[in-house]
Amino acid sequence: ITLKGNSELAVFQRDGDWDGALDLVVKAGDPGVRSLAANDWYRLRRRLEILKLSGASPSTFQVPYNSFKEKFESSEFDSTAESRERNIKDLDYDFICFFLSTQRLDLYRSIDFRCEDMLLDDGILSEANWLLDLGLMPNSNSASRAIGYRQAMEYLLISREQRGCSSSKDFYYFLTNFQKASRNFAKRQLTWFRNEPVYQWIDASKPMEQVVNFICDAYEDQTGELKVPRSLYMDKDISNQKEVRLLKAYRTKNRHFSSREDCDGIIDWVRRTQGEPTLSVC
């Protein structure tokens, strides 16, 4: 079914006929695709796949929390804090939802370090190389669209075009884009959870034993009145002006790749794997 859906849309995508592709999916039974961003072929294919697999458009599927949220955001619900808490308890299921995070600066620093770690040994570059060898291109499917893989594949493609040649400037450009894309994704996640009223925020930088004990206590509590203690509480919004200024001035400080010499091993690996040894003269 997936292959059939892809083949049906492939002709339209090849011809750049976005409107024609929309008409096809609308006639198949999903008028909601007209709200998609222009040329978002990935989501259009997914909508057609769901339609063919289930016989219904994605918009017809309802889950308890979504239906609750629609009511919660409508005029049917009182906007006072007390009423909001009471309405959350009216869910069909007993949700106990926590969101664990750290202060934004610490989170960004941790993300940058994690991106570096993924480049060590046979890391993400080797996997990106494997995807390219399979004939995949960056941003062509879910794997090559993933943060890190896309940037790594683009970096290796450029190196292949240069017969395996790569400079420290090329590498740091790739690493910077990888880290920036990862931080931006985390920021979008924070925004999403901030707008979800059923989540209680917990500061994950606190001792893990305290965090786990509180979550276990909340699970065992039958009253539903247990609140996150001040010692673990984390504010959803950044209200501290000092933190706002620090975020605006944030700059990456690499742990493993802090100088040109630190990336020599990776550049050598790129030279050996992405070019023709007899022709690679950088």
UniProtKB/TrEMBL annotation:
It comes from the Eukaryota. Pfam families: IPPT. This is tRNA dimethylallyltransferase 9. PANTHER family: TRNA DIMETHYLALLYLTRANSFERASE (PTHR11088). One of its GO terms (biological process) is cytokinin biosynthetic process. The keyword Calcium does not apply. InterPro entries: Dimethylallyltransferase, P-loop_NTPase. Keywords: ATP-binding, Cytokinin biosynthesis, Nucleotide-binding, Transferase. One of its GO terms (molecular function) is ATP binding. Belongs to the IPP transferase family.
